[in-house]
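User: Design a sequence. Structure:
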C-alpha cells in the first residue's frame, strides 16, 4: 500500500479500528464455543445434538435477522444497531454460563448471540468500513477487516480452553463474557461512520429497500452467489462446532482443538488479506468458487486419515487461509454491482443462505453423529456439496460476464 493511499485512510482509522475490534470478538468468541461442548454436555446432562441445536439456532437467527438489520442501518444508522448487538452478545454469554439444561443453552448461545451477530458481525462491520474509504482502497480494507474477524479466535480459543481445563466450562464462558465487554466501546467508536453521508443508490437499483431487493433477486449472478453461499456456512460451522469433539473421540489432547482454532484464526488473517487484495484484481466470483473447491479437497484429505497433532495443525492452517476470504469477495462484488447504500441488506439476503447452511452443518452434523456414531457421513456430504458449489460458481462466472455493473465504480 503506497504512502499516499495510507495517508488517505487516516481520517477513517478510528472507524476502521472500532469496527475491526467489534468484529474480532464477535466472530472469535462464537467460533470458539465448540471447545466447551464435551464438558458442557456432560456437566448438565444434554446430548451433542442438543448443544449443536443451539449453535444451529444461533446461525439461523443470525441469517434471518441480517437483512432486517441491514435495512434498518440505512434508516437508524449503524451505531444504535452495533451497540445494541454488543449488549445482546454479553447477555447471551452470561446466560450460557448459567445454563442448567437445553433451554438455557439455546437461549444464550442460540437466540441472544444469534440476534447479536446480525448487528455486530461481518455485514454491518463491512458497511461501516466501506463508506469512509475510496473505491480504490475498498477491497483491501474489506480484506483487512475480515482478517480482524479471525484474531479473536487466536485469543479466545486458548484462553477459553485453559480456563475450562483449570476451573470448568462455566468459568471459561464467563471469561468469554469478559472479553465481550470490549465490543461496547468498539461499537461506539465504529458508529462514527454515521456522520459520513450515504451515497444515493444507482437509478436502476432504486432508493427503497424493496426496489433494491427486487433488482437483486432478478440478477442471476446474485442468485447463483447466494445459493453457493449455503455450502460455505455448512462447512465452516461444521468444523468449528464438531472438530473439538472429533479430536477427543480420536484420543487427541483437548488443547489441540483450541490450538487448531487458534491456527485457523492466524492463517485466516493471511487469507483475508490475500483475497481482499486479489478481489481488486481478478474475477471475484471465480475466486469464490476456487475457495469452495479447495476447502472441499482439504476436508476430504484430513478426514480420510487418522488425525495427528502435526496433521491437524497443517489442516487448520490451510483451512484458516481459506476461511473468511469469502467475506471481502462477496461484499466487494455486491458493492461493485449494486452500490453502497443497500450493501448490508443485500449482503444479508445472501447471508440467509449461508446461515441455513450453518444450521445444517451444526445441527445436521450432530444429528448424524448421534444416529450413526461417526462423523464420516457428515464429512462426505460436506465435501460433495462443496465440490458441486465450487464447480457451478466458477462455471457460471466464466460462462457469463459477471462484471456488468449496475452501480457506478
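Assistant: Done.
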Amino acid at each position: 500500500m503506497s504512502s499516499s493511499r495510507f495517508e488517505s485512510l487516516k481520517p477513517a482509522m478510528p472507524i476502521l479500528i472500532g469496527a475491526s475490534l467489534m468484529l474480532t470478538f464477535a466472530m472469535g468468541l462464537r467460533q470458539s464455543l465448540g471447545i466447551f461442548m464435551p464438558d458442557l454436555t456432560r456437566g448438565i446432562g444434554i446430548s451433542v445434538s442438543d448443544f449443536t441445536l443451539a449453535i444451529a439456532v444461533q446461525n439461523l437467527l443470525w441469517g434471518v435477522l441480517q437483512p432486517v438489520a441491514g435495512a434498518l442501518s440505512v434508516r437508524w444508522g449503524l451505531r444504535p444497531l452495533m451497540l445494541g448487538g454488543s449488549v445482546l452478545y454479553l447477555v447471551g454469554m452470561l446466560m450460557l454460563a448459567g445454563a442448567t439444561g437445553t433451554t438455557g443453552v439455546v437461549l444464550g448461545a442460540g437466540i441472544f448471540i444469534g440476534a447479536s451477530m446480525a448487528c455486530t458481525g461481518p455485514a454491518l462491520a463491512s458497511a461501516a468500513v466501506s463508506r469512509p474509504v475510496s473505491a480504490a482502497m475498498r477491497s483491501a480494507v474489506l480484506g483487512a477487516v475480515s482478517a480482524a474477524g479471525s484474531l479473536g479466535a487466536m485469543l479466545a480459543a486458548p484462553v477459553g480452553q485453559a480456563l475450562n481445563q483449570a476451573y470448568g466450562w462455566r468459568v471459561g464462558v464467563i471469561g468469554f463474557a469478559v472479553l465481550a465487554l470490549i465490543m461496547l466501546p468498539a461499537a461506539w467508536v465504529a458508529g462514527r461512520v454515521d456522520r459520513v453521508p450515504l451515497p444515493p443508490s444507482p437509478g436502476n437499483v432504486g432508493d427503497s429497500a424493496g426496489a433494491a431487493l427486487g433488482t437483486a433477486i432478478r440478477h442471476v449472478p446474485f442468485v447463483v452467489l447466494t445459493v453457493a453461499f449455503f455450502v460455505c456456512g455448512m462447512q465452516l460451522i461444521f468444523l468449528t462446532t464438531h472438530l473439538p469433539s472429533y479430536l477427543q473421540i480420536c484420543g487427541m489432547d483437548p488443547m489441540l482443538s483450541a490450538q487448531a482454532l487458534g491456527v485457523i484464526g492466524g492463517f485466516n488473517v493471511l487469507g483475508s488479506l490475500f483475497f481482499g487484495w486479489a478481489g481488486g484484481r481478478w474475477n471475484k466470483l471465480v475466486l469464490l468458487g476456487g475457495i469452495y473447491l479447495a476447502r472441499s479437497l482439504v476436508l476430504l484429505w484430513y478426514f480420510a486419515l487418522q488425525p495427528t497433532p502435526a496433521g491437524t495443525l497443517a489442516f487448520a492452517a490451510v483451512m484458516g487461509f481459506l476461511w473468511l476470504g469469502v467475506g471481502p469477495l462477496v461484499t466487494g462484488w455486491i458493492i461493485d454491482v449494486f452500490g453502497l447504500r443497500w450493501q448490508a441488506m443485500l449482503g444479508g439476503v445472501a447471508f440467509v443462505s449461508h446461515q441455513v447452511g450453518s444450521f445444517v452443518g451444526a445441527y445436521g452434523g450432530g444429528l448424524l453423529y448421534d444416529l450413526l456414531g461417526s462423523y464420516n457421513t457428515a464429512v462426505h456430504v460436506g465435501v460433495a456439496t462443496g465440490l458441486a458449489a465450487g464447480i457451478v460458481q466458477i462455471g457460471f462466472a466464466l460462462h457469463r460476464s459477471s462484471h456488468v455493473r449496475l452501480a457506478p465504480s
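Residues 402-409 have pLDDT under 50 and may be disordered. The chain has 18 helices and no strands.
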